[in-house]
Amino acid sequence: MAAKQQPAPSDAVKQIHFLAAALKAPRIVEAAGRLADQARDAGWTHEDYLAAVLEREVSARNASGAAQRIRWAGFPARKTLDDFDWDHQPAVRQQVAALASGAFLVEARNVVLLGPPGTGKTHLATALGVTAAHHGHRVLFATAVDWVARLQDAHRLGKLPAELARLRRYGLIIIDEVGYLPFEQDAANLVFQLVSSRYEHASLVLTSNLPFSAWGGVFGDQAVAAAMIDRIVHHADVLTLKGASYRLRNRGIDTLPSIRAGIDQPDN
Question: pLDDT tens across 59-88, in order?
């Protein structure tokens, strides 16, 4: 009985193209061709060659998926931890490095970044969001004002429960600039519902220029603020950034007006 002939190289390449298309993995074709000569020259086993090809495909898919998740997250600008000026905030570097591992997302822990304007809170929040996207998590970023507007629209349409349920499917939600503008009580209640819906289920990253003690003035209700803070910090890493505004360095401006003073000031 004649030995079974091996397919000609051209036939094998055609078969790889067909199978890659069937698997919806077109990058396998490029990886297979690029690695074939290397595998032959280095004497790889069939298993080594297959593992190398599949590794390239998985890496490419992860990179493509992360890029898509970053585009859809709504970041105001793409920021990374490598871009951050650690000389400006050396005290939090070790904590942020630990958070970059993504373990807090798996544990449904929160991160709160507190500090004056210009100290890097939004940069770090965005960078943690970008890192989360690379870890495979879906991310959404918006300011506190924009989150309130989004939830108000859902409430007005009678779809708030559905919207909160949909948002729970995101591994990370970032609420930027808590405290820059005070909220009416109805708006505060909506933020509370968002926080409550994610409690011990999925992570939040929040930034604020105010200490927790001033949040009652922001949300117009001490009880709501206390209940919200309780749920946020129960499982959270709280990082306090200090110093003058990075944006105003070398501008001859040493201090900025106190936003808390404006909130605490009584009406005439």
Answer: 777 777 888 899 999 999 999 999 999 999
